[in-house]
Each structure stands twice: as structure tokens, then as C-alpha cells.
Amino acid sequence: MTAPTDAELLASHCAGDPDAFTELVRRHRDRLWAVAMRTTGNPEEASDALQDALISAYRRAATFRGESAVTTWLHRIVVNASLDRLRRRSVRTWVPLPEDGAGGATLIDDAVHADPSAAVGSSETTREVRAALATLPPDQRAAIVLVDLEGWSVEDAARMLDCPQGTVKSRCFRGRAKLAERLQHLRNPEAPGVVVPLDNESMTPTTQMTPTDPPGGDGPTRQGGTP
Asked: How far is CA 107 from the centre of its chain?
């Protein structure tokens, strides 16, 4: 028997199926947790943001119009919830993660129980990278997380962040430049001046990265957000 699609699960949830939303969250919990964790930089904040987002998605499922993939819709809600939590705090304090990992969440009938070790490394490098991410403005951090860490296209990230593609490119460019400056000590010895990016799973350096060319003609606009 073919498993139902994400859209079919969401439709079943709206029709009253008590298990459909739980199954939908199980499919995507790891990536949703990773986005919340990397955007907030704090396990407790990420857990709260993810719970806020899933409760919102659960209640607002009927508003989904199918104009994008269900996963894009879920990620947008998680990103917005994470950014909301960041903006409520006037000062961000970096708290190093414990060596054995911490965080995760259990919500919607235990549908979410993220394995922190899958998204949070415990090495000194990982902590330095997370600390560097935490210094970025929330909008730049969210763009970096979605495009560079989670691998979403600029087009998809623009949908999630509700801003033009040029704005996403600009935020990524500026964020990468700041990370490159802050993480100079993690430079690739074979390519001086080049900072290595973050592995999608462990958030440890892997391959070379430099800030890409600025958006140029496709630069940011003020519609829907600021870079």
C-alpha cells in the first residue's frame, strides 16, 4: 500500500483523522528541529519555538492552499516562530551546549522527540560555529540556516521568509561575510583566506566557502522584509 503524501495527510487531518498530523510531523521532525535549533542557537528556545510552530500548524492546517509544498509551509511556520523568539530578546547570550547534548521536544502526542546528537555537535569547533551564528542578526541567520545548512533553494527560502529572492541573497551574502571574518581561525590551510562552511548534519567544517558575489542587479528590495 502506497503511503499517503504530505498533502494527503494534511487533508486527512483537516477531515478529522486523529493520527494524520502526528504522522506528518514524524516525517519531518528532524529537519524542523534542526532549523529551530540553528536559528535560535539554544535548545530551550528551539524546543519552545518548535512547539509554538507545530501548535500553530495544527490549528491552521485548513488555511494551507497548496501553493507550495507542505514541507515548505511547515518550515516557514518554524522559521517565523524561531525569529519571533529571537526578536523578543533584546540581548542574545551564548550558552555553550553540554558535552552530552541537550534539548529536543515531545509534542503532538510524542510526534516530536528530536535526537539532539543528530543536530547538535559537541566539539569545540561546533560550539564556535554556533556562537558565530548567534552573533548574526536574526534575518541573516535564518537565511544562512535555510540556504547553506538546510540546502533549500533561494526561491524556497524566500517563500519561507516571506521576502523577495534578492533579499535572501543579500542576507546570505552579508551573513557569510560576517561568519568568514569571525571564523578566520578555521580557515582551510590549503586556501588561505577561505573559511570552510558547515556540514548539514554535524555543523562542522567540510568544504571551502567564501561569500558569494553580492546580488548585484537582483539585489534586495524593501518589499516583504529588509536585508
From this structure: 19
Position 187 confidence tier, pLDDT thresholds 50, 70, 90: low
Q: Boundaries of CATH 1.10.10.10 in the chain?
A: 124-227
Q: Is the pTM higher than 0.85?
A: no
Beta bridge partners of 97: none
Instruction: Report domain 124-227's class.
Output: mainly alpha
Q: Residue 195: what are its φ and ψ, rounded to 5°?
A: -100, 135
CA distance 65 to 62: 8
Distance of alpha carbon 205 from alpha carbon 199, whole angstroms: 6
Instruction: Give 125-179 as a 3 state SS string.
Output: HHHHHHHHHHCCCHHHHHHHHHHHHCCCCHHHHHHHHCCCHHHHHHHHHHHHHHH
How high is the pLDDT of residue 186?
67
Q: What is the dihedral of CA 24, 67, 156, 174, to 10 degrees?
A: -120
- Partners of 209 in the β-ladder: 195
> Is the four-CA dihedral 122, 125, 128, 129 of positive or negative sign?
negative
The dihedral through the CA atoms of 173, 179, 184, 188 has a sign that is: negative
> Domain 1-122: which CATH class?
mainly alpha
Q: Above 80 in pLDDT, residue 201?
A: no
Length of the chain equals: 227
Grid coordinates given for 45: 528556545
- Find the mean pLDDT for residues 80-94: 72
